[in-house]
Design goal:
CATH topology of the largest domain: Double Stranded RNA Binding Domain
CATH architecture of the largest domain: 2-Layer Sandwich
Low-confidence stretches: none
Largest sheet: 4 strands, antiparallel
Radius of gyration: 20 Å
Number of helices: 4
Structural class: alpha+beta
Number of domains: 2
Distance between the termini: 24 Å
Oligomer: single chain
Shape: elongated
Helix content: 25-40%
Order of helices and strands: EEEHHEHH
Number of strands: 4
Length: about 130
């Protein structure tokens, strides 16, 4: 989903500040332009806290550029990965060998995690190692 963000351009002492017209209270900042998309993604993930069904549709850019509240900066369209925003749990029925379940439980306990959190973290770690 591409969302419009308004960037207050920074300088040598100040980061670029980002506001989200469609997400009141959501903001971000970065010192380098190339870091802005990642910071925008992170801000959206934190702002919605796993409730992507509450994400409104983006306002048309034509309407936003006429808004007098947004002057002295630049507009960017940033592609948000909604799959990272949706953290709703889904119940699964999985069959595993008993010895593996015991090993999972032992590892989860050692890391102060539940079995579900431990099992959910395994594919996330595998995906990040690609």
């Amino acid at each position: 989903m591409c969302i419009p963000v308004f960037v207050h351009v920074g300088d040598k002492k100040h980061a670029h500040g980002v506001v989200f017209p469609d997400f009141p209270g959501c903001f971000s900042a970065a010192y380098h332009w190339e870091d802005l998309p990642a910071m925008v993604q992170e801000a959206v993930e934190a702002h919605f806290g796993g409730e992507p069904e509450s994400i409104p549709k983006p306002t048309a850019m034509g309407k936003l550029v006429k808004n007098p509240d947004y002057v002295g900066g630049v507009w960017m369209l940033v592609n948000i990965d909604l799959s990272k925003v949706n953290t709703k749990s889904i119940r699964l029925n999985v069959s595993l060998p008993e010895y593996l379940v015991h090993k999972i439980d032992d590892a989860a306990t050692a890391k102060h995690m539940t079995r579900s959190v431990f099992l959910a973290s395994a594919p996330i770690n595998a995906f990040e190692q690609r």
